[in-house]
Amino acid sequence: MFRFIQSEKRLSTAEKTLERLDKTVRDLQLDWEEMYDKFRRLYARISKRVEREEALRETEGETQPDATPEPSAIQGNGSHPGFLTPNQKKIQQQILRRRSGQ
Question: The pTM is what?
């Protein structure tokens, strides 16, 4: 009779452990699915941005075939061509000149 009670206790412990592990696996699977969705959305946004930049460069190349890159793009001082409007680029150049003491 005592063996039956011990077996029942061990079975109950095993069931609780199995339920806990099952819940952990479900939580991890949900976390993975959420992370995958975030990655997929981020990758799609980056791909669209690259496509827009390439299209912009192609149209700029058609309108200005002999254009040279901007000095800021050559120097690599952190400004990305195509991200700023002409007015913003002008203001940025003024700020950079002030910072450099000119």
Answer: 0.45
